[in-house]
Amino acid sequence: MYFNGYMTYFNVEHCGLYKIKGDKCLGLDLSETFDKIMDWVQDRPLSTTIPWDPNTTRDNKPKVYCKHVYKDPKTGHFLIVLWKSDHHSSGTMWGVDENEASGSDKIVKTSTKHRGKNVIWGRPCYYWIIPEYKAVVSIKFDHSLCDAELFKDFVKHAITNRVKHDGKYKLSENGYARIAHNSTKYNEVKCLYRFSMVTKSLATDNVSLQKLVNSITHVITRDTIVVNGKNDRADFVNKFNSLFPATTLGKKIKEKRIEVIAESRPSMKEVKELIEKHAKDNRKPCEWNNIGFSTDKGTVWIDKYRLRDEIVILADEEQYFPADVLYSHIYENINRYIQPLKKEQAKMKKKLADIKEANK
Questions:
Q1: How many structural domains comprise the chain?
Q2: Residue 195: is it exposed, middle or buried by C-beta count within 10 angstroms (0-12/13-18/19+)?
Q3: Residue 138 pLDDT > 60, yes or no?
Q4: Per DSSP, what are the bridge partners of residue 46?
Q5: H or E, element range at 336
């Protein structure tokens, strides 16, 4: 049987230690970050790889663990498999023995006898990290999940809460760090670890994206307003609420869906910024909040214009892919998968060279 994995590309905007008001990475870049995470989870029981205390978090953050990390010795790329706790998945439930070491390829199914074992039920989340292009690619199969926000949270909390640092970095409990470089220029500089990424849109020379930009007549914004008991809103909002009653969520909390359609002809740059800021790799069909465009052929939504690709794997049955196994399948067609990243990097280098030449 053939199993399709849908790949969504992300730009890593920040990864590492930065001065509080600075934009230059002073340490813990993409490679070093995942080297340290890989060292931390090595041979740990799965239950101890959650990077925050689930008993003290107040934002109902899902539990997520590190199932496996693989680093390819030839390319320096990483493939990390997170395990997102999920008790409500449809279909066959998957689980992992909480005492199983990170890196194990063992999976428990509801039909499997697991008597006497404490099982963490959930689904794998696959992410390919490509340091030389400052990119991350999520890979979604039918049996897996994708959650870019949870992935970012995992990385940030793993580095600030769990990973052991040598004398080069001294991290405090609130996530701030004093870093001691060999150079006295950066000695004992107060920094904060940052990790952020945005969805990568199609290239500006993509025919589909060019056609979209040329045909946009309106920008559509869908949002949800949460209204509490205190009424300090503008008059037009109150009149709107009186005409269209809100959905009651609780004793003093109400929710209202709104849609704003604004006449607009955004530029290519503006459209790409909207896609990169608002597109999602895991948007549910029932989810209201979204950004779209009205064109002469109808309405399209921004998720359609993410940079995407597909991987097809031949297997006897639907199964969990260990990190090294999945990466070996990626490597078979790696030139194809990194081609858009390579092309974008070459264009950026040429642009910078042209600017430098013009300023001579």
A1: 2
A2: buried
A3: yes
A4: none
A5: helix 334-358
